[in-house]
Amino acid sequence: xxxxxxxxxxxxxxxxxxxxxxxxxxxxxxxxxxxxxxxxxxxxxxxxxxxxxxxxxxxxxxxxxxxxxxxxxxxxxxxxxxxxxxxxxxxxxxxxxxxxxxxxxxxxxxxxxxxxxxxxxxxxxxxxxxxxxxxxxxxxxxxxxxxxxxxxxxxxxxxxxxxxxxxxxxxxxxxxxxxxxxxxxxxxxxxxxxxxxxxxxxxxxxxxxxxxxxxxxxxxxxxxxxxxxxxxxxxxxxxxxxxxxxxxxxxxxxxxxxxxxxxxxxxxxxxxxxxxxxxxxxxxxxxxxxxxxxxxxxxxxxxxxxxxxxxxxxxxxxxxxxxxxxxxxxxxxxxxxxxxxxxxxxxxxxxxxxxxxxxxxxxxxxxxxxxxxxxxxxxxxxxxxxxxxxxxxxxxxxxxxxxxxxxxxxxxxxxxxxxxxxxxxxxxxxxxxxxxxxxxxxxxxxxxxxxxxxxxxxxxxxxxxxxxxxxxxxxxxxxxxxxxxxxxxxxxxxxxxxxxxx
Length: 502
Fold this sequence. Notes:
This protein is α+β, with helices and mostly antiparallel strands and 502 residues long. The protein has helices at residues 3-29, 39-54, 74-87, 89-114, 119-133, 136-139, 143-164, 171-187, 190-208, 214-218, 221-234, 249-254, 265-284, 294-312, 328-345, 352-386, 416-421, 461-465; strands at 64-66, 244-245, 316-317, 320-321, 395-398, 437-439, 470-474, 486-491, 495-500. A hairpin with a 3-residue loop joins strand 8 and strand 9 (495-500). The protein starts with a helix and ends with a strand.
């Protein structure tokens, strides 16, 4: 093999990985109407916070209040609000979507390098993490949680440096680990639990293999304990409420793949199978050769631990839902890391696995584009009607479009009426687990935002509608299910705006 051929073979994998990453970011940048579930709601709240922080509340100061405190979710909101201030809301939302999508692949690369994986493993892990990063949580706009997963992984990368520091002082790496944990906590509460589990088990495996001392491995308790005590001080044990929803064992098993089921089964099952097969091919040659490799033991322990957390955690507590399934992406990550570690022990690493990894990433991009691009066009037309509503008007927004599989791109589109025209809408996220942001005055009553999609018509809908000036909803809709005295004042191919008669 000539020098040029060897050089091309060396450069091809990172070049392909970079092209795939750029293609993903190009898709998300093209979504100028942000059809990503909860994201319009988060963006609207961030625009209000930006107005309160940087514009003296000129637009929203008479309706909303900001009382900053060091609690979960606040840092993500402040970051998005800063993006709104710098770039305007729509560019900010696209930057946010790109940052959220890129956060996991970047964190995977940092973690794998910190844990001593080879260049080949780092590239393969980065490519497959493009699929893991764009899961159900991403397409439904759970950006804070997805950023917290990346920050937890970065904290674990710093923790690896603590355990590997030998005779050197562990304090610089421990300080970085602590800062990343605190940052993750201020983005999403899950960092506290999942970070504690990951650090504790990684340290325990290192101690068992005599690669770190017990005092050093126990030092993770300093940042975790401090953050835990702060959480108890500011929010108590149950910030979401007391009511628990526990899934039966059978439902737990059926929901185990839920983070990777975004749309119909036809495009999703081949992607899941491709990811599992790629991991199996990576691991196949390394079985029986794991002696002396802490990475295999650590990955296996963490994968099993997060599956155990999924089995043990409730599905919801009060207003906080999808608690248990948040552990599953970590299980998939550590299964991948274990497979990569085994691959490095194999005498002949699989040649098919890299091609399959690239295929999974490319096919996943095609699936995302096929669903998100049409939804973006619909949302753009919806924005046009939302911008015609008078400022300060009260608007009952109804999510009439059915979900797209398990994705619900239009559920919170109604908050765009607040963002575009300053109208008052009923479903803006406030209070609850985000006590730093509240409306100054009680809003008009409203039924659940899921009522139309759920096939029901609330008994008091007519009475509730009397508190509103307009109704904004997507078309088509069934007038018999929305029996409101109204006059249609605007319509396009996506939505209708009705003026309500009181």
